[in-house]
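Hey L., structure's done. Input below.
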Amino acid sequence: MPRAAWFVAVTILAAPLGAAAPQAPLPAKPGGATVGREFYVPPVDEGPKIPAGFTPIFNGRDLDGWHVSRTNHHGTTPDYHIGHGLIVGTQQPRGNGGILLTDRKYRNVEVYMEIKPDWGCDSGLFLRSNEAGEAYQVMLDYLPGGNMGGIYGEGLKGVNGFGRGAENLTDEQRAERARQRNAVWQKAWKREAWNSVRARIEGEIPHITVWINDQLVTDFTDTANHAANGATDGMMAIQMHQSNEKTPRWVDGGFWRWRVIAVKELP
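Output:
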């Protein structure tokens, strides 16, 4: 075999089998370590945990207590399945996402999740959602330029993402707030490892607080209750965003993984 062809063959065989998605760039201060110039070693995984006072709503065996929305605009046939005690999600068919909803509704509640997404895949945590997925969303856009931990009104009118007082902010001040939030989550994030997201929603006018790996990322109070039909409770959902060439929000072969989803209901 010519030397050039032999080199190509070795390179291909040495590539990791089943590599699904491109790797994320290193955070400013990763939880793991870079060895030499080429290898990143993730931090040691201490295994799943459920904080005191929280009750699991994913049992690790099946999707009992959950259902897929058949009316969500991101898609109605997403592939949520159980593997090795995890919820594993990807698009089905390519480009079509969707949401997995709790059967129960919640009012004032705190949610704790442990997640491991592939870089380039856009998800979200929906709070006070209806069946169609109109909800307050904690954005989990794990992709270039994405927003991790910010608030978005999914299908809602009047949610500005910055909350009370945002009407007085200049464009430069809004950009600076977004930059500060990004700096917090990027510093806290553990690349190629399990990360925790904790979100709390309470009040008739929603007050939403978000932590990533115990670091406060967002403290948001809306200007009014903009939930669909003025709801003060609703289902929770985990999302897989739709994607296309114009708006690429998912990479081919990409997955999201959830190993813990637990709640603590509040007064």
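Confidence is low (pLDDT under 50) at residues 1-21. Residues 171-188 form the longest helix (18 residues).

-- N.
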